Amino acid sequence: MPKMKSHTGMGKRVRLTGRGKVVSQQAGMRHNLEKKSSTRTRRLAGTVEVAKADLKRIKKLLGR
């Protein structure tokens, strides 16, 4: 039986922390930044933990 391959695209979008949490960049920082307030862009700048609803699917794609 061949080995499971991890989804390379998902690997570029999320990363696992040391404790096994899945973190990713927040959405909304790609374009139209002039319209968005400075407060909003600062808030979107960091990484956040992925929603619980998406965890099962993401971990499967990462081969975990």
TrEMBL record:
Pfam families linked to this entry: Ribosomal_L35p (PF01632)
Keywords from the named record: Ribonucleoprotein, Ribosomal protein
Region (Disordered): 1-41
Keyword Ribonucleoprotein: yes
Keyword Ribonucleoprotein attributed: yes
NCBIfam families hit by this protein: rpmI_bact (TIGR00001)
Family: Belongs to the bacterial ribosomal protein bL35 family.
PANTHER family listed in its UniProt record: 54S RIBOSOMAL PROTEIN BL35M (PTHR33343), LARGE RIBOSOMAL SUBUNIT PROTEIN BL35M (PTHR33343:SF1)
Record protein name field: Large ribosomal subunit protein bL35
Native source organism of the sequence: Plantactinospora siamensis
Lineage summary: Bacteria, Bacillati, Actinomycetota, Actinomycetes, Micromonosporales
